């Protein structure tokens, strides 16, 4: 029997055939229960492949710029860190330019990155050889190092698992980055937002990258959101593997880069919303942090031309990604360039020659910085007449703008949204204290993880040990930088997730200190091991805390998603933002939608106008004197349809604004349909002829029932700031129900306190249109308008 079997090398084909036949047989048996073509695996592999292709394109472009423009020859980890940071910034600038010429087409999705990959093809062989050489020269990892690497891989695996559902995408990414990308793709390129939507004018470089993802010609919203999430994941890996390792090798040249990156996961906050990977901009900013730190250290000694210019471009990228990133990373390097240049000039033998060299270097660098940030300031200047719109609108003739918009931006927004200490001595002392206690006291929404600190405290706890260590000059430089960044962060707007942008610097410093301590005697190692073990133990359950603002637990959502395949619900797996996707199908393509009082509308696939009060400056309904004004404004902005959440008002605008808008929509436009709690209206060319009275009945019951008749203009009072304390005297006041009946006959509007009761017969001619939330000093209330005469007003 044995003589019939092949021997020696001849066994290989037989064994391969046997194994392959087993795999085919297993697949054939399993296919009827869970068809192979329906596996989610293929979808994730496709998305991972597209994301990896784009990252290769970015690296190819960045590496080409390093070699041919900046002419820098770098060690491997620094080269990869700089190439990815510079390349991704340049990739996004390219997407901006493509948007300017209206080239957001499906073909762009494939052609643009393919051209960039081709740009670096001649160099790919050298990259391959370099990594082979590093792999051969490095010593074998010790057993402890292997354990560290396995711990890091486990953390990466946990993070990747949580992003497998688009439900993991954070709220800000949905209504900002992705919504803007979707709008641009619907338009076919960039466009001016006529309502002055604040976010479209602020730094939003990540939206251009997401615009590429939303050009994906196959799949659904699920796939586009997941492609954005996979791009963020790969950027996170690059930052972790190359950025942190490169910065540590700059501080400690003999460190092993194969294990240096693991320090990133000594900070458990990265495993929990909203510091985790959730398609926001913070982790894209983190890609820049190590590169900027290394470039600052590199160019400090002589301010060499190539390094100065590279640093300025990277600082421009930080400015373009996010304001919170810029305030932490940009000021100190800029100050260093100026002060170091002055020092070099004063201490050079030929002061004129050195001054000329540095002025030429820094002067061209300034021009380079202006050019690379032009997608921010020049775009705003052309479209809104203000390079930093809506900031400094008292200096620039901003458009759109108004006195009400100025009050909203400078008073209401600061009081209701900014996390900052008071601008007093106590506030300054509080900020100074925060640089030491920021990790011990959570700076996050209380509904997330309450008073429990989850950021990670090893950086702060190990700083005293740095005083007894040698060869730490560069570590001290980065530590000082981090503390300046922490002070700025706390003083301006302190939420924990913003610190993710500088966490690579924090992790690199922490890991470097740990390495130096590990090189001491056994007692120090034991104490260090105990401290690290305590930190890991305290954060061991963070990944499982169910505080995700959008879904409770992304982990559970992924489990549920994967279970749908077994249940045969294959199409249900790709359902996300269902009502907005239904809206996209209901409204003809090419039409523009006014999203009233709605921050999030991702999936609508249409150009939008957004009127949430604090986030735009062009729509102030309470300034209208007649419904004709609102009709004219919306027509000028190109609005074709109006969508609102039925029966709701967030309370973000004045009460008068709410009443005027609901009156306009329900009495003067045409109801088209209802979609999952949303009312859809079409904007007519001309308004229905409906009588209009600008009087409003106000019913309060805080200190007994009181009824007042006001002019509608009296309800323009905001909920925040000095104007919130002003109250216009009513036309009439009474506590008599008979007189209240007379008030109703003279008014088109009524505002009833949320806890007040009014006899039904008094409001028979009125229709309740919304329940308004409490906002600042304005209490919760119910809003009514006189019953519309148009036949389409119903609740069906």
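^ Assign residues to that structure.
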């Amino acid at each position: 029997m044995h003589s019939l079997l092949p021997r020696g090398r001849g066994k290989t084909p037989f064994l391969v055939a046997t194994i392959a036949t087993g795999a085919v047989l297993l697949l054939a048996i399993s296919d009827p229960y869970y068809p192979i073509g329906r596996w989610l695996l293929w979808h994730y592999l496709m998305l991972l492949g597209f994301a990896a292709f784009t990252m290769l394109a970015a690296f190819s472009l960045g590496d080409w710029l390093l070699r041919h423009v900046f002419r820098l020859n770098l060690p491997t980890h620094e080269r990869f860190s700089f190439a990815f940071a510079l390349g991704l910034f340049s990739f996004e600038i390219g997407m901006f330019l493509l948007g300017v010429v209206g080239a957001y087409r499906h073909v762009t999705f494939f052609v643009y990155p393919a051209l960039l990959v081709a740009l670096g093809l001649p160099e790919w062989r050298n990259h391959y050889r370099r990594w082979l050489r590093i792999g051969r020269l490095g010593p074998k990892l010790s057993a402890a190092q292997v354990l560290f690497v396995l711990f890091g891989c486990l953390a990466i695996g946990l993070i990747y698992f949580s992003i497998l559902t688009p439900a993991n995408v954070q709220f800000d990414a949905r209504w900002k980055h992705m919504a803007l990308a979707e709008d641009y793709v619907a338009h076919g390129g960039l466009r001016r937002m006529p309502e002055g939507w604040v976010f479209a004018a602020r730094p939003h470089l990540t939206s251009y990258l997401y615009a590429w993802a939303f050009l994906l010609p196959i799949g659904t919203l699920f796939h586009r959101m997941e492609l954005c999430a996979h791009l963020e994941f790969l950027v996170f890996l690059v930052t972790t593997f190359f950025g942190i390792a490169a910065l540590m090798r700059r501080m400690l040249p003999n460190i092993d880069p194969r294990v240096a990156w693991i320090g990133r996961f000594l900070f458990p906050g990265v495993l929990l919303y909203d510091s985790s990977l959730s398609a926001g901009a913070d982790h894209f900013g983190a890609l820049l942090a190590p590169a900027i730190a290394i470039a600052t250290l590199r160019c400090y000694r002589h301010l060499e031309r190539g390094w100065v210019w590279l640093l300025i471009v990277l600082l421009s990228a930080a400015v373009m990604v996010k304001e919170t990133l810029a305030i932490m990373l940009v000021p100190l390097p800029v100050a260093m360039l100026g002060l170091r240049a002055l020092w070099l000039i004063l201490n050079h033998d030929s002061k004129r020659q050195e001054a000329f060299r540095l002025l030429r270097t820094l002067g061209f660098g300034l021009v380079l910085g202006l050019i690379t940030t032009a997608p921010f300031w020049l775009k705003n200047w052309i479209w809104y007449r203000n390079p930093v719109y809506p900031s400094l609108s008292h200096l620039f003739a901003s458009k759109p703008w108004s006195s009400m918009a100025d009050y909203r931006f400078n008073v209401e927004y600061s009081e209701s949204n900014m996390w900052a200490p008071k601008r007093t001595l106590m506030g300054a002392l509080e900020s100074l204290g925060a640089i030491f206690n920021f990790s011990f006291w959570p700076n996050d929404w209380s509904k997330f993880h309450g008073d429990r600190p989850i950021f990670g405290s090893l950086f702060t706890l190990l700083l005293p040990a740095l005083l007894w260590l040698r060869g730490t000059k560069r570590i001290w430089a980065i530590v000082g930088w981090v503390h300046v960044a922490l002070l700025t962060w706390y003083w301006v707007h302190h939420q924990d997730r913003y610190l993710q942008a500088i966490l690579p610097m924090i992790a690199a410093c922490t890991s470097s200190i740990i390495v130096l301590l590990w090189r001491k005697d056994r007692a120090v190692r034991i104490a260090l091991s105990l401290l690290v073990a305590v930190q890991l133990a305290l954060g061991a359950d963070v990944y499982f805390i169910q505080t995700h603002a959008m879904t409770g637990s992304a982990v559970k959502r992924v489990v549920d998603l994967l279970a749908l395949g077994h249940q045969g619900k294959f199409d249900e797996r790709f359902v996300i933002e269902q009502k907005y996707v239904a809206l996209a199908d209901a409204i003809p393509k090419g039409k523009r939608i006014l999203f009233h009082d709605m921050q999030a509308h991702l999936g609508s696939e249409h150009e939008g106008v957004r009127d949430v009060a604090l986030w735009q400056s062009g729509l102030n309904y309470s300034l209208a004197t007649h419904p004709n004004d609102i009709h004219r404004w919306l027509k000028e902005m190109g609005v074709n349809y109006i969508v609102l959440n039925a029966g709701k008002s967030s309370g973000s605008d004045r009460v008068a604004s709410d009443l005027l808008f609901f009156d306009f929509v329900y009495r003067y436009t045409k109801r088209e349909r209802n979609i999952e709690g949303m009312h859809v209206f079409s904007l007519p060319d001309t308004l229905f002829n409906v009588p209009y009275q600008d009087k409003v009945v106000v019913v309060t019951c805080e200190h007994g029932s009181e009824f007042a008749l006001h002019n509608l203009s009296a309800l323009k009072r905001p909920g925040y700031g000095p104007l919130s304390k002003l109250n216009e005297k009513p036309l009439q006041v009474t506590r008599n129900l008979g007189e209240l009946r007379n008030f109703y006959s003279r008014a088109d509007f009524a505002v009833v306190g949320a806890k007040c009761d009014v006899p039904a017969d008094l409001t028979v001619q009125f229709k309740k249109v919304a329940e308004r939330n409490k906002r600042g000093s304005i209490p919760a209330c119910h809003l009514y308008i006189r019953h519309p005469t148009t036949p389409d007003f119903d609740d069906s």
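The mean pLDDT is 90.
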